[in-house]
Each structure stands twice: as C-alpha cells, then as structure tokens.
Write a structure and sequence with these properties.
4-stranded parallel sheet, two-stranded antiparallel sheet, 44% helix, Rossmann fold, globular, 8 strands, 400 residues, alpha/beta
Length: 400
Amino acid sequence: MAEEFDTRHNSRTLVDGPDRAAARSYFHSVGYEAEDLKKPLVMVAHEWIGTMPCNFSQRALAQRVMEGIRQAGGTPMEVNTISISDGISMGTEGMKASLISRELIADSVELCAIGYSFDAAVVIVGCDKTIPAGAMALARLNLPGIVLYSGSIAPGRWEGKDVTIQDVFEGVGAHAAGNLSDERLHALEQAACPGAGACGAQYTANTMATALEFMGISPMGTATVGATDPRKDDVGVEAGKLVMDVLKRGVRPRDIITREAIENAIICAASTGGSTNIVLHALAIAAEAGVELDIDDFNRISDATPLIGDMRPGGRYVALDMDRAGGTPLLAKRLLEGGKLHGDAMTVTGKTIAEIAETAQETPGQDVILPIEKALKPTGGLVILKGSLAPNGCVIKVAG
C-alpha cells in the first residue's frame, strides 16, 4: 500500500507543540480556534481590488471556496494581493505596471505560502496577469493546489443588442471618425460592462483561464461559468472540496504541469483564436515548472491545430456563449476527435483530459465550438514570425 500523504506536511512546524504557543495565540486573536489549527491549513489567495470588474467578485467567491474547504476537513485562511487592469491602464504610463504585476502577484502568493507554512492553496484569479501568476506561483512552490478563475463579465445591452468592451473600443474609433455622437458613445460606455467579471471575449483572461483547464491545474468546465452566474457559488464550494482531495492524494503542481499539459494549453488557445499573450505566459509557467518550451513550439502546435472556436474578437461569440454550447469539455472532445490533444494528460481532478471530455454535453444546434471537419481555418490563430524587425521572434494573431 502506498504511504499516505501527510495533509499537515507544512503546518505542523508552525502550530504544533508548546514552543509554538505564541504563533497559535496570534491565530486565536483573529478567530481561529484550537481545533482549527489541528487541521490542514489551506491558503485561499485572490487579487480582489475595488478599481475594476475583473476581480470584483473574488472576495465573495473566496467565501464559497473556504466553505468547501471546511466541509472537507481543512482550515482555510484568506490572503490577497494586488492586480492591474490592462483595459483601464492601456495607453497610459500605468500599462508599464501590468506585466510587472504578474511577477509581484506570483511572488506574493509564494511568500504567503512560505511565511504561513500552508499545506495547500487555491489561487483565485481573474484579470489578465493574475492567471499566469497563479499558475507560476503554484509551480514554483510545488505546493498541492489549484487555480480557480473567478469568471467572465456578462454582455451589456445597448440599442437593443448585446455589447461588450470590444464595442466600446470600436465606438471610440467610430466617434473619432464622426460616426458616433458624444451622447451615443456615453450611453455605450455606460452599458457595456454591467457588473463583475473579466473581459468576456477570448482576450488574455479567457484565453489563459481556458488554457489552464487544458493544462490540468484548473478544474475543467469552471472557467466559462460567468462571474455573476449563480452556479459560480457551487463552483467555489466544489473547488474548496477539490483542493482538499488534491492534498489528500499528495498531488503537486509539477505532477500536472508537464510538457504534454503545456502543449494542451497552447492547443486550446490556438483552437479558439486566443490571445497572443499565451506565448509569454506559457513560457513563464513552463520555466517555473522546469519544463522545456521554446517560442518555435508555438508555430509547430498552431500549424497542427484547426481553429474551431468562433470566439470574439476574431469571431462572433463570448465566453458565456461557449459555456452554453458545452464549455471546455466539449472543446476538448472536439480536439480529441481530431487527434489534436494529449488525452492521457492528468488533471487536478484525478481524471485525464480524455476522461473529462467523455462527459461533455453539447447543446443541440450550437455553432460556437465546431467539429474539426467544419473548422473555421485549418490552422490555429497564432503565428510566430522572425526577421530583421524581430530576430528573436514575435507573435501575431491570425484568427478572424
């Protein structure tokens, strides 16, 4: 029989024994009882901030995650760090803070995990740079844990149609060309973002959130559930239970984030016309996990991957449409049918990608996720170019 994993493998040194009475006293002061400290200590990290919608639901979602951890026999402890909105800061000096924030978030999660001797972690992520940061931190720590996406924003309604932030950006251009009045632009900006959630199209946030599901470090089928969807509460509770299961099994991030898993993540992005930022983020995650990955790998993978997700900005649909169509399990099923995925890659759930894909439920008549034989394009949405302007390579998106 395999040796049982010690679910308090780190926290024992922090809170056990007479010599740790002072540490326990500090914990008692903020509401933890003696019995709480005899259970596995699980970090629930997030980047809630009151400046943007992307992460605005995370404090509430964290409560649901902590509920699930308690139900499964653990003691959750909430920590948080910063986040920067690309959408708000673009075109200003503030955009210089964006990529740096990825490193700071990863460092913050790492330091809290070490400083409080956590046994496991759930990293709740939302805005662009927070998602790779969560995966980077877990891979670096190799601490049992999962990444959980807090979800997309719902479309707004303007002049009788669904609109997103993409329509606002296009509206700015129309206004500059004299084709949209001040009043209509103002009404559009008021309507486009109706509540909490990350940008709804296949921009960086949804690209990375779905990619992490295909990487196996996030539970598949949860990313496309919207931030304000009532089902997200259940997603949070189940994520809390899942991390306790991951801990009991002794599964570590580097057991999951393998070469095949990272290739699956890139395939996901290429097949949905995802963000070019998958390149710099996948390279960073691979480096933290000790997996060899080169920029040229993206061309090889994208060339072999058909574009089958009709997703904005190049296509017609947003993440919530993908969810209604059948979500990431359906996307995995389609790609596996075409022999495009590593189906035996393991996920945090204890099931392989292929096993999860078998459970996919497709909505009849949907045209968001297409069969391989009806692909929008025979190759994926990413191309790496090299030349005099970019001798070390650059990436362009060719979806749409």
